C-alpha cells in the first residue's frame, strides 16, 4: 500500500511551524499509543502510531523536511523512520527518542536520563534566619555593637551528626538502593520522586540516637556580636553569613539577617539623613530676637533668633543630622519654630498685654503682615 502524505498523517498544512508539527504528533501519539489501545483495535492503533512517528521524524528534521517537500517520499530514505522499531521489544524500541524533545520537561530530562542519569542531589543549603533588633536613635546615628541570643541547630555531639546510636551506623536504604529517589512507571510515563522510606537521604537508621532522636542535630542557643554601622535606618538588614540554620547532608549553612528598628525619640523625628525638631520660643524672643539653646545628638548648640520671627519658620543647622551609612556626609538638623503662648498670667502682665494691644491698634496691618494677608484672601474669596 502506498504511503500517505506525511502532512496528511499529522493533519497539518505544508507551511506548518515546528510547534504545530510537534503538537499534532503529541496528540496522535497519546491517542494511538499501545498502552492506551488494547483488544481488537490494538493492531490498527499500532500501525497508526508507527505512521505518525515516521511522519514526525521526517518533518521535525529540517534537512529531511526540505528533501521531502522537494521530492516527496523518494527524497527521503523510506527506512529511516522504521529503524527504531523492531529491535526494542514489541516494536517500540525507538519510542523514548521520539518523545524525548516533547516530554523532556515532564520526565525530568531527555529520554536517556530515565536510565539513572537524572538523580537529584540530597545536599541542601540551610534556611536563612531573621532577627528584629530595636535600637535608639543615638545608637543608629553613632553606630554600636549589640549581642543577640538566637536559637540554633548544631551537630549532635553524641552521634557526631550520623543520627545513629553510638556503636551503630546508618544502613543503606533497601527501597531506593541508597539513591534517595525512586522511579514510578505508569504506561510510558516515568516519574521520579523522593524515596518514602529514607525521605531522600539514602540511609535508614535502625537504632536512632537517644539525644537527637536520629536527626543528627540538636537545638541550642548561641550568642552573637552584631556590629551596627553608623547611619542605619528603619528596616535596614545586616547580613551575618553562615549564622543561619546548618545545611542538610553537608550543605552550606544559611545566613542570619538582623533587621533594625529605630525606637521613637522624644525630641527628634528622622527623615533620611535629616533630623527635625520643634523649637518653642517665647513671644518676646520671637518679636525682639535673641539667642537660644537647642539640643543636638552631639550636645547643646546655640542658635540666634532674628527679630520678628514667625511661628512655623524653619532654621537649618548643617551637619547636625545623621551620618550616611555608605559615605562620610552628614544630614542637617531642621528646627521648626513654635511660638509659645504664655499661661497663668498675673494681673500686671495682663494689663501690659492689653496696653500693648491698644497701642498697636492703629498700625495693626503693618505689625501683623500675616493677618492682613489672610484677610485680603478672605475678601477675594467672597468677592
Task: Provide an overview of this structure.
By secondary structure, the chain is α+β, with helices and mostly antiparallel strands. The longest helix has 18 residues. The termini are far apart. About 11% of the residues have low confidence.
Count of the domains: 3
Helical element count? 10
Q: What best-fitting shape do the alpha-carbon axes yield?
A: elongated
Overall number of strands: 15
Provide a quick synopsis of the model.
With 383 residues, this protein is of the alpha+beta class. Helices cover 27% and strands 25% of the residues.
Which helices and strands occur, and which strands form pairs?
Layout lengths: L5 H5 L7 H15 L9 H18 L2 H10 L23 H13 L21 E7 L1 H6 L1 E12 L15 E2 L8 E6 L2 E6 L8 E2 L12 E12 L8 E4 L15 E7 L6 E3 L2 E8 L1 H6 L1 E7 L2 E7 L8 E4 L15 E7 L7 H13 L4 H4 L1 H14 L1
Parallel strand pairs: 1-9, 11-15
Antiparallel strand pairs: 2-7, 3-6, 4-5, 8-9, 10-11, 12-13, 14-15
Helix pairs in contact: 2-3
Keywords:
single chain, 383 residues, alpha+beta, Helix Hairpins, HSP40/DNAj peptide-binding domain, 3 domains, 4-stranded mixed sheet, 3-stranded mixed sheet, 10 helices
